[in-house]
Specification:
Length: about 230
């Protein structure tokens, strides 16, 4: 089990949990606010266009509305492309404190955060379970599987996957199944040390593979065994 991958899985789940908690808190707070809030049409007095640190366009919407003959206003917490300066938009305000007002789309923010957080959290947990299960299966196969010295066919960089900007290697090998006489092809998991350099520099031709004698689809390519060539 690679530490970088496991760390990445924990970060994924942790960030997801934070988003989920924040989203649920925002949604709960907004739901409670809307129970007593009143709606009113507010005038859009200004839309200030700016840019954030990533260069993305931002919009600060300023509104004004009247409650009991008194004017209230300020920056709205939502923006849509249909908003225009001089137009109107629905806002919800606290009757006890009209200075506390929110846009009509505020409720979706909490749902979006909680939805994204829940998805990230589930993906992170699934990744962790997968890594733990994979490690457990590898230990079982090393203890009970049939050892094959498989011929190394190829070592490639897995450009479809990256952690901290690094791509892992994948090793492909083949060997004869001693029980059937058929040629089996094996693919390693992600390898985070430069196994290609080890294979090329030391002209390594085989790698240990542990095969489940009852199910040829279950195997473990012991790429770590090639670490013994480091320094040779």
């Amino acid at each position: 089990m690679n530490k970088s991958e496991m760390f990445g899985a924990f970060i994924f789940a942790f960030v997801g949990a934070i988003f989920l908690v924040v989203g649920l808190f925002v949604h709960s707070s907004n739901t409670k606010f809307m129970e007593t809030a009143k709606s009113i049409e507010a005038e859009i007095t200004d839309i200030r266009v700016g840019y954030d640190s990533d260069g993305d366009t931002t919009h600060d919407v300023l509104v004004e509305f009247m409650v009991d003959g008194e004017r209230y206003g300020g920056k709205l917490d939502t923006y849509t492309s249909s908003m225009r300066e001089g137009g109107t938009t629905t806002v919800y305000y606290d009757p006890q404190n009209p200075h506390d007002f929110r846009g009509s789309g505020t409720g979706f923010i909490g749902l979006i955060f909680s939805g994204m957080g829940g998805l990230f959290f589930v993906i992170g947990i699934v990744m962790i379970i997968s890594k733990v299960k994979s490690s457990s299966n590898a230990k079982t196969l090393k203890a009970t599987g049939t050892l094959l010295h498989a011929k190394i066919n190829d070592v490639t960089l897995n450009t479809a996957y990256a952690v901290n900007g690094r791509n892992p290697y994948r090793l492909s090998a083949s060997a004869i199944d001693p029980s059937t006489g058929k040629t089996l092809v094996f693919e390693s998991g992600n390898v985070w040390f430069n196994v290609k350099a080890i294979v090329d520099t030391n002209a390594v031709e085989t790698v240990d593979v542990y095969l489940d004698p009852t199910n040829p689809k279950k195997y473990f390519v012991d790429v770590d065994s090639l670490r013994t060539y480091i320094g040779n």
